[in-house]
Amino acid sequence: MLDQRTMMFLVFVAFSLLCFVVGYTARRRGWAPERWSRPMHLHTIIWLWSPVTMLAFWGLGSDAAKDVVTLMLAQPVLMVGPAAVMAMTVAVCRFKREQRGVMTLAAALSNHGFTLGSYLCYALLNPSDDALRYGIAYVTSMQVFMVLIFYPVAAHYAPGVGRGVGRLMIESFVTVRAAPLYMALVGLILKLLKVEYPTEAIARWHLMDVLFFAGAAGANLGIGLRFRFGDTWHTLHLHGLLAIVQFVVHPLMAAGAIGLMTLTGYPPSDLVRNVMLIEACIPTALNTVIVANLFHLDARLAASLWLWNTLGFCVVMLPIVLWFW
Questions:
Q1: Tens digit of pLDDT for each residue in 258-291?
Q2: 266: domain range?
Q3: What is the pLDDT of residues 59-92, one digit of tens each?
Q4: Maximum Cα–Cα distance for the chain, whole Å?
Q5: CB under 8 Å to 140, separation ≥6 — which residues?
Q6: CA 92: distance to chain centroid?
Q7: pLDDT tens for residues 6-49?
Q8: Is residue 77 part of a domain?
Q9: 219: part of which helix (H) or strand (E)?
Q10: Which distant-in-sequence residues (6+ apart) come within 8 Å of 142 by Cβ?
């Protein structure tokens, strides 16, 4: 039988998909305009993702520094690797330039955050609080390297935007959308100042669960408002290709990275290893859609890839992960 945390995660996944359907239905029926999607995502980042990030870093154990550094350094390698495989694959196919850019981004960016990957680590691994914090450190690292590495990649596939990519990178660190990054720093400062972490209050009010579900509602309602089924059937080959890279190439590369660290005398802890392997099985991220919009790539394809890759994860990869862990 599944334990309480795992059952809660399955409820969370069903709730997330329901929110997507509600957002999509609301737009189709004219109950909510598509333009609500952007402010919905912005306020989700500011008021929900940011406090989760702060709490995660505030609650890190004193002996967690090495593990966090390992995760945050492994992240760019496990972003660039699958992206390189995808970029080389689509380069020899007759895809539009905007599609090649979206496919490369979709292979690099995964839903490591607390709306899926980090929450799954929290549900399956012990100690659960540390697993959640490591997952949040992992996604925070992804946010940084997304700007430093994959903004230029996106600009490569959208030449008209490329001249301003440097300015865009700088602005990405000073905009309100960077709030989770700075709230992570606040959490670290509180930790260094030895301010007591409010463990009992968080447990009493189930604060993390409330933030998880509220964040999932904001993110998935916003995607539903934007989503168009369009010509999904004409891009099945793209969905299949992304599934292979996300669910086969990425886990193999994560296992290879762990093996390499072990052979070189710097083996990761059991918890770090499990976080890396679970996160390597996670589908493409909402950030794929956001970056595609930002650089005028094929945003509708990005939204379609996000939906079907997430559903593929729920049907194929999630049962495997639940069985293995």
A1: 999 999 888 999 999 999 999 999 999 988 887 8
A2: 64-175+230-318
A3: 887 777 788 888 888 999 999 999 999 999 998 8
A4: 59
A5: 53, 72, 180, 181, 184
A6: 28
A7: 888 889 889 988 998 999 999 999 999 988 887 888 888 888 88
A8: yes
A9: helix 207-226
A10: 75, 79, 109, 110, 112
Residue 217 lies in a domain: no
The answer as to whether 160 is a domain residue is yes
CB neighbourhood size of 256 (10 A): 13
Residue closest to 17 by CA, chosen among 312, 263, 316, 311? 311
For the entire predicted model, the pTM comes to 0.87
Q: What angle separates helix 97-108 from helix 286-294, to the nearest 10 degrees?
A: 140
Contact criterion met (CB below 8 Å) for 216 and 115: yes
Evaluate whether 109 touches 30 at the Cβ level (below 8 Å). Answer: no
Domain count along the chain: 1
The per-residue DSSP string of 62-109 comes to TT-HHHHHHHHHHHHHHHHHHHHHHHHHHHTTT--HHHHHHHHHHHH-
Domain-embedded: residue 201: no
Side chain identity, residue 296: H
Whole-angstrom distance, CA of residue 268 vs CA of residue 165: 35
